[in-house]
Amino acid sequence: MKIYVTRGTGSGKTKIAAFDRALWDAGIADYNLIKLSSMIPEGSDVVVEKPSLKKDEHGHRLYIVLSESYEDVPGKKAIAGLGWVTANRTKGKGIFIENADGNDRKKITEYINETVKSMLSYRPEEHGPVRIEFSEAVCRGEIACALVAAVYKSEGWK
Description:
The protein has 158 residues and is an alpha+beta fold. The chain has helices at residues 15-26, 105-120; strands at 2-12, 32-35, 39-40, 45-48, 61-71, 77-86, 94-99, 131-138, 143-155.
């Protein structure tokens, strides 16, 4: 399975409006989002690119791991980070770690790295390096939203 890591930013008068705009920017708007915890299935290929979702899937379910951050103080940044590791260095089973606590890339990176280190300490497989994608949005008067999402698949209702 191919899992797409995408990111987006947006702003709006409300958090939901800012979030919706960030979803548009990430290429994953108009879906019912089903948030997953953090497990990457065996045999997965994680790629950093916007998914090629179909325009006729309005309202379909979209399975994602999501990191989202908001900021409403003008001049401050919302920063979201999503990290991951996979077994066998490139493909395979693995874990995602999302973090958007604060507006400091260094702290988010440290949190993700410490969490991965802890989670891998009791897993027997060898894993590749930690990869992290960030999204940043500066508040310019309206609420800013930054998000990073790992997109698994879409699914209709029939």
